[in-house]
């Protein structure tokens, strides 16, 4: 299940942080590292800080956009110390790890970490199902990226070990959307959801429900709604069919 979980670092400035994050991943058994537009990579400092986790760096996937990093993922979590004007569904690392590790049995999972100074943008957090907040000291809550990766990786590992113990003791299958044996269609991927959101926005503009000159965070709130719902691929196809019918009727 760990192989389905990827760590995504966005616009990392210091290569040493990439190396340290790779080391944090390997100590907990994770190997999938995606880098979105790193400032300096590959780099000797990354290799130095990775210590014996250089193999994680060697197989890291470097991409130009967040879309590329999470396109095939069905569950995306964004870590951020900052709360937002429009609040996103919030979980602690322990809570989100328990859900993520179960879903990782059948789906690809991504954990996003933002820039050293500014973290994730609102647009990047909007791509996530959950905002993950590490309950650090409120008087000094700034964590180094590698330290944040270590916290999440540890919680994911502990959740994985706990699930393995449960499965050894259980004979009945896990029943729920996270079990591919139970659900009839797989959950929609990030790429499929983005296509749906683009179609939804176009349709809403077409019926004059959404004014692109004054959007008033409508699409942000609709993203939050559908991200909570976790639609599967058939449900997305139905929704897009409905949008196409509306567009046809308007024409």
Average pLDDT: 93
Order of helices and strands: EHEHHEHEEHEHEHHHH
- Please compute the radius of gyration using only Cα atoms: 19 Å
Strand order of the largest sheet: 3-2-1-6-4-7-5
**Helical percent range?**
40-55%
Amino-to-carboxy terminus distance: 48 Å
- The domain tally reads 2
Strand content: 5-15%
For the secondary structure, the number of strands is: 7
Describe the overall structure:
The chain has about 250 residues and is of the alpha/beta class. It has two domains: about 1-170, SPOUT methyltransferase, trefoil knot domain (Alpha/beta knot), CATH 3.40.1280; about 190-250, Helicase, Ruva Protein, domain 3 (Orthogonal Bundle), CATH 1.10.8. It has ten helices and seven strands. The protein has helices at about 15-25, 45-50, 55-60, 65-70, 95-105, 120-125, 145-170, 190-205, 220-230, 235-250, and strands at about 5-10, 30-35, 60-65, 75-80, 90, 110-115, 130. A seven-stranded parallel sheet has the order 3-2-1-6-4-7-5. α1 (about 15-25) runs parallel beside α2 (about 45-50). The longest helix is centred in the middle third of the chain and has 25 residues, at about 145-170. It is globular.
